[in-house]
Every structure is written in structure tokens, then in C-alpha cells.
Specification:
281 residues; alpha+beta; CNF1/YfiH-like putative cysteine hydrolases; 6-stranded mixed β-sheet; 23% strand; binds zinc ion
Length: 281
């Protein structure tokens, strides 16, 4: 598997330039921890409202990103994530959900998608794997949050099958990006997790994604697990991008739940496209 960084465009976020070069209508990327107003363990661009930070600071951080991306908070859709695989189609009418109050986000949902313009889908992370989905012909955009639980429940496949079966999207027209998350360099799991991963990998052994480094201790390449599951779901290899960034290694850029031992902020993935900018196909 070839991995590549999301290109750093601005301090406050990494742009998924491989997609924006091809489809300039898209706004898509991953926020960093830089240039925000949060203090202490949340320094500084924390966008998580549910992690113990001062919510006024979080909202100010979110407004800063909204200004940079030119998507006001009223156009954002945020969700209440539960490490499951439920996928919800959202619309412009959901704009503003969960932006200033965590409990008002889309309930119990780790995957959202839309065909509407002027909507910015968002999802929060501190090590889990951000998955981005795009179909050029249908104009569908989607995001999914995949920690190890969402990964082994195969939320990636859930989104892809929803698009193929409900939205009648040709699987050959689905593009997937696997964003910055904890790398196998920093992620060690036990037998319990390893067994679940092994069960989820239909045609591969655990050796494809990890190795035993001590009795009952295994490195785990969670991005690669998702990559294999996306391929298994029928997406073409050339339509998949895998970020090389490790959220735990890159302390200047990212919060990391493992590295910071739980008390830390969140980055967010985002994807949206603007009114009046239809894709050509
Ligand atoms: Zn690392």
C-alpha cells in the first residue's frame, strides 16, 4: 500500500489536495491543533465540544475554521459518535446540527452523507480513522468515523453499500480517502482487539495489518485494515488514498487520545461543496 500525506495548505488544516486539484468544487480536509484559543491539554484548535474543554473556546475555534473554509457554522452538520456503523443521509435542513451544543448533533451516528450543496459534513477525531467518500457522477459526499470498533463493524462497507444499493451509485465511481490517524508505529492492541480484526478481514490474515511484539501485544495498522475493507467492498485501488500521517507521532499537528492519555482535544474531518458549482461529467 502506498501512503501519502494530506498536503498542508494552511496552518489550521490539511487539505486533501489530491481531490481538490481534481475537483476544485470540493472543500475537503482535516483540521490541525494549530492557531486556536483553547488552553492546557486542549491547545489550541480543539473542535470537540464533549471533551471537557471550555465550550466558548471550542465554538470560537469552530468559527475560525468556518471563516477560513467559507462555510458558516449554520451549514455544518456535526454528529454524536458512538463507535457503531449506522449511516444517515443528511440534508441542508440539518445545517447547524451539533455546532454549538454537542447533544444537538445527529444522534448515535458515525457515518453521514449528503447530495446537498452548501452543507459541510464534519466528524471529530483523536486517533480514530477518518474516512472520506465521494462519487463524482452523483455528487454524493460522505464521512465516517472508524475507531477499531467502527472498523471491525465495517462502517466503510456500510457507506459504500448504502450508496450502491440505495443511491444507485456505480462502485467504480466511488472515491475513498483514509485520513490521518494513529499509525502502527504507535498503536498496540491486545488479543481481544486482534481477534475482532482477524474476524473482520475476510480474505486476509492478521499478518497483513499487524504483528506480535510481545506475548498478547500486537501492533495494528488501522488505516490498512480500512484500506483492505474498502477494496473488499469493490472500490478500485486507484480510487483510494491513504494518508501517511500518524496522529500520535505528529505532536505539533495533532491531538492524540493515546499519547495524551485521554485528556486531549479533537481534530475534525470535513467535506462540502458549494452552490452553483456542479461537477462536470
Ligand atoms: Zn506513530
Amino acid at each position: 500500500m502506498k501512503t501519502e500525506p494530506f498536503i498542508e495548505k494552511l496552518e489550521e488544516y490539511l487539505q486533501l489536495q489530491q481531490w481538490t486539484d481534481k475537483w476544485p468544487e470540493l472543500t475537503v480536509g482535516f483540521s490541525t491543533r494549530k492557531n486556536g484559543v483553547s488552553q492546557n491539554g486542549y491547545q489550541s484548535l480543539n473542535v470537540g465540544l464533549h471533551v471537557g474543554d471550555d465550550s466558548c473556546a471550542v465554538i470560537e475555534n469552530r468559527k475560525k475554521i468556518a471563516d477560513i473554509l467559507n462555510f458558516p457554522l449554520e451549514s455544518w452538520v456535526c454528529k454524536d459518535q458512538v463507535h457503531d456503523k449506522k449511516i444517515v443521509k443528511v440534508s441542508k435542513g440539518n445545517g447547524g446540527a451539533g455546532t454549538v451544543s454537542y447533544k444537538d448533533g445527529i444522534k448515535g451516528t458515525d457515518g453521514i452523507y449528503t447530495s446537498d450543496k452548501d452543507v459541510l459534513l464534519t466528524s471529530c477525531y483523536a486517533d480514530c480513522v477518518p474516512l472520506y467518500f465521494f462519487s463524482q457522477k452523483s455528487g454524493l459526499i460522505g464521512l465516517a468515523h472508524a475507531g477499531w470498533k467502527g472498523t471491525v463493524k465495517n462502517i466503510a462497507n456500510e457507506m459504500i453499500q448504502t450508496w450502491v444499493q440505495k443511491e444507485k451509485v456505480d462502485v467504480n465511481d466511488i472515491f475513498v480517502a483514509i485520513g490521518p490517524s494513529i499509525g502502527s508505529c504507535c498503536y498496540v492492541v491486545d488479543d481481544y482487539v486482534k481477534d475482532h480484526v482477524t474476524d473482520a478481514l475476510l480474505s486476509h490474515s492478521f499478518a497483513a495489518v499487524g504483528e506480535e511484539i510481545a506475548m498478547g501485544q500486537y501492533t495494528l495498522h488501522l488505516k490498512e485494515v480500512n484500506h483492505l475493507l474498502v477494496l473488499e467492498a469493490g472500490v478500485k485501488e486507484e480510487n483510494i488514498i491513504v494518508s501517511s500521517y500518524c496522529t500520535s507521532c505528529e505532536e505539533d499537528l495533532f491531538f492524540s487520545h493515546r499519547r495524551d492519555q485521554g485528556k486531549t482535544g479533537r481534530m475534525m474531518s470535513f467535506i462540502g461543496w458549494k452552490e452553483g458549482q456542479r461537477f462536470e461529467y
